[in-house]
Amino acid sequence: PLLPLNAGRKLLYILFEHASGYGLFSVKEFDEVAVLLPQVESSVTDLSKFQSIVKLSAFQAFRNGPNSLDNINAIAAGALHPDLQTFLEREVPKSNKKVQVILGVGDSRAGLTITEALGIPCQFSGVVREIMRGIRTHFPHFIKALTETTASKAQLGLGHSYSRDKVKFNINRVDNMIIQSVSLLDQLDKDINTFSMRIREWYSYHFPELIKIISDNYMFAKLTSLIGDRTKLTTESESQLEEVVMDSTKVKAIMEAAKSSMGIDIGTIDLINIQMFSKRVVSLTDYRKTLAEYLHNKMANVAPNLAALIGEQVGARLISHAGSLTNLAKYPASTVQILGAEKALFRALKTKGNTPKYGLIFHSTFIGRAGAKNKGRISRYLANKCSIASRIDNFSEVPTSVIGEHLKQQVEDRLKFYETGENPAKNIDVMRSAVLKATEANSKALKAHKKRDKKEKKLKEPMITHLNEITGDNTSATAGESQKKKKNISEGNEESTEVNTTMDCSQMEMRSGKKYKRKKQNPDSSINTTQEEIVITADEVPKKIKKTMKRNADDSIEVSVLLQEGDISKNKDKKKKKAKSR
């Protein structure tokens, strides 16, 4: 127990939090239950035995889904929700000299807050755990309106909303795409290099002089697919070659080398295969460029400060090596410094040699520009700034690159200090200006986001009105068609019965001969439905139940109408008229 218990009779109440609401259970004499702990453990699975020990005292259901989520969040945080406070104040009796009331709870933090706020002593160990286990098992049996299916649905819905609230998933800031993109980029670099070497070796059998003239792999693959057979090069193809090479001197060198080449003749099928493979390499290189642009844009959304400080590709490799941006933000600066040089680190620890000074951050421009003596210093300083930038990117709501640019300027000033001895600006002054500019950028981004939302709403409004107009035209057209059918049938001098089906299907009338006016619709009714008039001749109707579908833009109502068989002919009407005239 959290508070010392007084002597006397003790009453134990159990507070059970369910996805559907709060339940308060009264337990048999507390002292007896404490003594009979083995019996309680054995009776948990048996409902009849468990109900002899535990009884439902009160139950308060949650109003809706958001209300249940608020209550569960408060319980998870160890706070006392106002709904729970009013429920306990109303249902739990107060202790006196003869009887002491104890409240059993499942969480120690919730027990502490309840004791501090309401003064009710709470217990969360011993027999309370076994009783709560039984309540959890048999909870639907205690509440009549709650079944096992509804309880499981409530738990599933609350679990989804609780997880969604905790995760706060944002699809625009997913770092998994960065990890896959940078891995694919590295693989494409290796594959393009291998394939380019293969094309150079393959095409050099036919045109070996082209390797010395063109050193770029992408340009060489383009020329291979363009030239094909070197013997077919003419003066007309010089313009096409110049579009690829962008150098007239190289074009002249290619034309002269093609005339006096030492290469062998090649078959048409072999040449077609070389050209197809060179086109594939060109397409891979183009895709590599688009992938690099995609990575640049993705890093600007996910980690703009890290990208501004160290570059998109190096920052993406750091995120990929750490596993996620969150993991990178958790690493200290010393780990970020040697990230990617784990083999060298463990080898140095085994041999008791010098540990590596840098890992993946070596590929940044700062370490290459530093002198040999200052490489270790600048790597430590850069790793420190990288850890700060990754933490800002991970925990900021609006991504901006303002602080990353200031951090980059600090690294540049540190490089100047190592080279020239010029003192850089103080860190506190730089950070103050960076924070001010970052807040301005955040406010601008929020305003732009609001404007974008307003524009989207304005664009959606005419579409909604257009859809409403379409649905209105359809309903009016269907009503007009039904009226036309009715006129055609009445003009055929056939006796008809008219059935007017109303919305609530309460009135059904059978009439012959005359038409009657349609009933006016109640304007105050919440459901706007159109009344249909169904005209059916009595000769064609058998004695059975026919179902007519009453359709609206929103819902369809099925109305069953019992049509009676009537055999009424023209002769009978004439006889009746003659009798009346006499």
Automatic annotation (TrEMBL):
Its main location: nucleus. SMART domains: NOSIC. The keyword Nucleus applies. Residues 302-420 form the Nop domain. One of its GO terms (cellular component) is box C/D methylation guide snoRNP complex. One of its GO terms (molecular function) is snoRNA binding. It is found in: Nucleus, Nucleolus. Pfam families: Nop, NOP5NT. Residues 471-481, 523-532 have a biased composition (Polar residues). GO terms for biological process: ribosome biogenesis. Residues 444-533, 548-582 are annotated as: Disordered. Residues 446-455, 572-582 have a biased composition (Basic residues). Belongs to the NOP5/NOP56 family. Part of a large pre-ribosomal ribonucleoprotein (RNP) complex, that consists of at least 62 ribosomal proteins, 45 nonribosomal proteins and both pre-rRNA and mature rRNA species. Within this complex directly interacts with TCOF1 in an RNA-independent manner. Core component of box C/D small nucleolar ribonucleoprotein (snoRNP) particles; the core proteins SNU13, NOP56, NOP58 and FBL or FBLL1 assemble stepwise onto the snoRNA. Interacts with NOP1 and NOP58. Interacts with NUFIP1, RUVBL1 and RUVBL2; RUVBL1:RUVBL2 seem to bridge the association of NOP56 with NUFIP1. This is Nucleolar protein 56. The lineage of its organism: Eukaryota, Metazoa, Spiralia, Lophotrochozoa, Mollusca.
